[in-house]
Every structure is written in structure tokens, then in C-alpha cells.
Amino acid sequence: MTSLLYQAYQNHTDLTEPWRSGALQALKYLNLLPQGMSDKFFRRLAAALELISRTSLTYSRPAYGIDRVTVGNREYEVTEEVAFATPFGSLLHFKKENAPEQPRMLLVAPMSGHFATLLRGTVQTLLQDHDVYITDWHNPRDIPLRDGRFGLDDYTEHLITFLDKLGPRAHMVAICQPSVSALAAAAIMSEDNHPSRPATLTLMAGPIDTRIQPTKVNQFAKSKPIKWFETNLINYVPVQCKGAFRQVYPGFVQLTAFVSMNLERHIKQHMDLANHLARGETEKAETIKNFYDEYFAVMDLPAEFYLETVRDVFQEHVLPQGKMTFRGRPVNPTAIKRMGLMTVEGEKDDICSVGQTLAAQELCTGVRAYRRVHHLQAGVGHYGVFSGRRWNNEIYPLLRDFVHVNA
């Protein structure tokens, strides 16, 4: 019966939709009242209606919203362009109109419970000095069964295909979970002497070897057999969706787990939101709303990809033990030679602990010492490695210089 949980959730969402849309319509009419009538009662009523209208998740990717970027002392218009696409993902190009030529970069986003837009700030920073492309993964609930499966090998193959589309001397930066596939793709392309193998490979807060200082996330992955994950977490996509009957790890289940870890904080944030709205503190309310608009935009994971990642990366550690394969052939990190390698970790990372990403340096023995860079960023957790002030001011300049030296 666990496999029907997603269907039950979708049915409940559909049944309660009139309440949310009704609250939204009432809020629109309430906002038409003259300003003089917007007393304490009306403001609190408006706040309540807005919270009711927001009591659902969305399964659509939010907009990146990157319209312009400053390069040097000039501002350039940015347009999104799909350079290549498969049913499971797009190679999305942030094209700067009439900008000077810059190093091409593939930013590899995690296939997790959220969309690649979670890296919006990372993209905006990288655009200052690079021609940026991103792996814009599609939601499996929108992908028909006829388009086949998507496992760990398929993810790696997508990276090889995307790099091939970018052409020679591009650079690859992988954030978190896909560091394993990025390293595998680089190794396979190097062994094949592929003309589009990346000039540099940067791995940021990635689980290359989770045997090193295991986090609670790592411990949980090893605490149960893979069959438990399959039985308890995998569901069928509801019949209302294009991807009906595809097996997935549902986004709402992942989000529930994340929220439960900091439940008091999320409750307080929504109480604060209600108070800000009631007091007319628009700017403070918008900050909270913008965060939860992104946080509650959830994406399912293909069952094959999720289960293979748990098994190979977090339970059996196939990459650091030299047992990883791609389409049946061994993945050999020592084949990586004429390539720069940079690893970045956060001192306070409680998802991917210190040493787990650094392990890539020990695996890639073919990379010359002068092409290696490792950076441990003091004072940041997992997300601080690729977003926020420390990323912009301390980590990014190192990455930029590393890429340009090896360009």
C-alpha cells in the first residue's frame, strides 16, 4: 500500500484545490478595498487568506529570473536558450548578448528534491566571467513511461553528451551529489581521449567517499538494506500526470523529511510571515515568501537513479573502492591526466563532511600536482560552499582563477 501514497496525496491535493483558489480570489477582492478600510482586521484576514492559498506544493520549475549580468564595467542582457534536450533534462545556456568570448562552463546540478533553480545564485556569480550552461533536469512525473528508465549510468551519459555539445576545452563544475557522476564522466572521456573532455573538473561538497567522517545522512543510508528504501520510499506517479505509473521517490516525501528535521523553524517562519503581512511589512514578507516559493517547488527522483545512488555511493562506495562501472566498463579515475582538478569543502558541512570530496584528489593520481587545487572554506556549511557571501567573496575568486589558468 505504500506505493499508493503518492496517488492518495495527489487526490487530496486536487480535492482541496478549490479552498486554495477560493482563498486567492477572496484575497484579490480584499486588496481592492480602499486603503482607509485596510485596518487591523482586514490586514489579518488578508494574511490568513494568503497563508491558505500557499498551502500546497508546486511541481513546476520556478523561473531562474536572471535577466542581466555585469561583466567588468558593462551590463549584458541574458537570455535562456536550450542548446540540447532529452526527455530527462535540458542543456540550458545562459546566453549573454554581444558579450566577449569567455570560458565555457557546464554547471552540473543535483538531481534532488528541488529543481536546478536552487543554483540560481551560483549561476549569476559564474556568469560574470564564464559562458555558463546548466543541467536543467526535468520532473519525472511529467515524463511518459515510453521514454524509458533513468539510472546512475544515464545521468553520467547525459554529462558526456552535454560536454560533447559544448565542444573542446569546456569546464565542468559539479555541485554536491553529481560529483560522483562528473568524476566518472571525466574518467571515461579521458580514457577514450574524447576531444570534448573537460579542461578542468571542479567538485564542490560532493560525496566521493562517504566512509570518511560519515554524517547522519550517510549513516541513515547505511542503516537499512536497499530493499527497505525500495519498499518504503518508492511510489508510482499518479494517474493524473503525464508520467503516470513511473516509479519515483516523490518530492513531497523528501520535502516532508527535510521539514521534519527543522519543524519548529518552519512553523516560526510561517508565523512570522503572517505577522509581517498583517503589519504591512511587505519587504520582510516577500523575503520569506520567495524562500518558500523555491523550497516548496519539488521534483521527484526516478526510482532507478535514487536506489542506485543510495546503493553505489552511500552503501557500497564503489567509486573509491575501484569497483564503479559505466555501461559495464570500469571507471578508472587514474585515466584523468591532462585536466585540472579542484575540490572544495565546507568546514561545517553536515551533509558532506570534510574529507569526502578531497578523496577525489587521491583517486586521480594521473593529474599533475601543479594542476591540483583543494580549498577548505572556514565557517560555512553545505550550502555556503556554492551560495551566499563566502561563496561570492572567497570561494568563487579561487574557482575563477583556477579555470582561467587552465583555459
From TrEMBL:
Residues 205-405 form the PHB de-polymerase C-terminal domain. Pfam families: PHB_depo_C. InterPro entries: AB_hydrolase_fold, PHA/PHB_synthase, PHB_depo_C, PHB_depoly_PhaZ. It comes from the Bacteria. NCBIfam families: PHB_depoly_PhaZ (TIGR01849). This is Polyhydroxyalkanoate depolymerase, intracellular.
